[in-house]
C-alpha cells in the first residue's frame, strides 16, 4: 500500500485489476478505469511547501473514496496520479458519472496549514474490450485519455479513443526527430517584422523553424505547444534565445542558425542615437522561465550580445499556460523584468 495515503499502490492496484479482468471475462462484463492527475500540483508543492502538498494528496484520497461507488477500488499510482478501478459497469455513461462526481468534489476548496487550496483534476476513462484485456494496457489507455483531457483545460474528462494513441505515437516520433534535428543544427530562425501603428519597422519576432526532410520547413511554434516532452520544449526555447542573432539592413532581418550569424550578416549594428533599440520577441513557456538556470543564463546572454543597448528583448508567454504555475511564474517574471527584459502575454 501507499505509505502516504493508505491507498493501494500501483502494484496492488494492477493486481486488483488483473483479477477483475478475469472475473469480467468469465461473466461477460466490462471493467472501467479512471486515471486522475491533479492540475497544478507542482505549483502548490513549490509555493506552499511539501507538507501542504502531502496534506492535499491525503485529502484527495479521502475525497476520491467518497465519490466512487461501493466496491470501486481507488489507488495512488505515483506523485499526484490516482486511478479508480470500476467493476460492473454497463458502458461509458457509468464511468462518466463517476468522473463528474470526482471532479465536482475536487473543486471544493481545502483548508491546509492555513491556506485555502483548490486543486482541480484531469480524468481519463477507459473500458475493457477486445483490444484492452490486459491490466497495464487498460491503465495506459486511461492515462493517454487523461492527457487528452488535460489539453482541453483544467477540470475535464475524456474517454479513450484509439486515435489518441496514434496521435501520441506521432508526437513521440516527431519529438525524437526534433531532438536529432537540434543536435544536427537543422533548426533555424525566421523573422516576422513588428511594425509601429504608423508602419515603421520596430523589430521582429524570432520564430524557430525546422527544415523537416519529408514535410519541408515547419514552424515550431505550431508544434511545441503539443509536445508532452517538457525538457525538449525548454531546450528549443533556450536555443531560440541563444540563436536570436539578427541584423538590420535595408529593412531585412538576417537569419541566424544554431546560434551562429548567417553568411554575410553584418553583425549587431548599434541603433541610431535618436532611435530606441530594435525589439526582438521570442516565445517562451511558463515551466521554462521558472527553471533555476533560466534567469542566470538569460543574464549572460544579454551581457554577451549587448542586450542593454543594441536590442530590446521581449518574451511572449501564453496566458493559458500561466494558470497552473502562476505564483512561481510571477516570481520568475519579476527577476526577468529586473534584467530589463519586456514581457507580453498572448498577442499584443
TrEMBL record:
Highest taxon of source: Bacteria
EAL domain residues: 171-348
Gene3D superfamilies per record: 3.30.70.270, EAL domain
InterPro entries (UniProt xref): Biofilm_reg_signaling, EAL_dom, EAL_sf, GGDEF_dom, Nucleotide_cyclase, Rev_trsase/Diguanyl_cyclase
Name under which the protein is recorded: Diguanylate cyclase
Pfam families, sorted: EAL (PF00563), GGDEF (PF00990)
Domain GGDEF positions: 29-162
Record-linked PROSITE patterns: EAL, GGDEF
Lineage: Bacteria, Bacillati, Actinomycetota, Actinomycetes, Frankiales
SUPFAM superfamilies cross-referenced by the UniProt entry: EAL domain-like, Nucleotide cyclase
Amino acid at each position: 500500500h501507499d505509505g502516504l495515503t493508505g491507498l493501494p499502490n500501483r502494484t496492488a492496484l494492477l493486481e486488483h485489476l488483473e483479477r477483475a479482468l478475469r472475473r469480467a471475462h468469465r461473466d461477460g462484463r466490462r471493467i472501467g478505469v479512471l486515471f486522475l492527475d491533479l492540475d497544478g500540483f507542482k505549483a502548490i508543492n513549490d509555493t506552499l511547501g511539501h507538507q501542504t502538498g502531502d496534506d492535499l494528496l491525503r485529502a484527495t484520497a479521502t475525497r476520491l473514496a467518497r465519490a466512487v461507488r461501493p466496491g470501486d477500488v481507488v489507488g495512488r499510482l505515483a506523485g499526484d496520479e490516482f486511478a479508480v478501478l470500476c467493476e460492473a459497469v454497463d458502458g461509458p455513461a457509468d464511468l462518466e458519472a463517476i468522473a463528474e462526481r470526482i471532479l465536482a468534489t475536487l473543486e471544493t476548496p481545502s483548508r491546509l496549514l492555513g491556506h485555502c487550496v483548490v486543486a482541480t483534476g484531469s480524468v481519463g476513462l477507459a473500458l475493457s474490450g477486445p483490444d484492452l484485456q490486459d491490466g497495464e494496457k487498460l491503465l495506459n489507455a486511461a492515462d493517454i485519455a487523461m492527457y487528452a483531457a488535460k489539453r482541453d483545460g483544467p477540470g475535464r474528462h475524456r474517454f479513450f479513443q484509439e486515435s489518441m494513441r496514434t496521435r501520441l505515437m506521432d508526437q513521440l516520433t516527431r519529438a525524437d526527430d526534433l531532438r536529432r534535428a537540434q543536435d544536427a543544427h537543422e533548426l533555424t530562425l525566421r523573422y516576422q517584422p513588428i511594425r509601429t501603428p504608423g508602419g515603421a519597422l520596430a523589430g521582429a519576432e524570432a520564430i524557430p523553424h525546422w527544415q523537416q526532410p519529408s514535410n519541408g520547413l515547419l514552424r515550431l511554434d505550431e508544434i511545441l505547444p503539443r509536445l508532452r516532452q517538457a525538457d525538449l520544449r525548454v531546450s528549443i526555447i533556450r536555443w531560440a534565445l541563444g540563436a536570436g542573432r539578427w541584423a538590420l539592413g535595408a529593412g531585412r532581418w538576417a537569419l541566424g542558425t544554431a546560434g551562429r550569424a548567417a553568411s554575410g550578416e553584418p553583425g549587431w549594428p548599434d541603433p541610431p542615437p535618436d532611435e530606441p533599440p530594435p525589439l526582438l520577441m521570442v516565445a517562451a513557456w511558463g515551466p521554462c522561465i521558472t527553471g533555476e538556470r533560466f534567469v542566470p543564463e538569460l543574464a549572460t546572454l544579454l551581457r554577451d550580445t549587448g542586450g542593454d543597448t543594441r536590442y530590446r528583448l521581449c518574451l511572449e508567454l501564453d496566458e493559458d499556460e500561466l494558470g497552473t504555475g502562476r505564483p512561481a511564474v510571477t516570481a520568475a517574471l519579476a527577476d526577468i523584468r529586473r534584467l530589463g527584459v519586456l514581457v507580453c502575454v498572448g498577442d499584443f
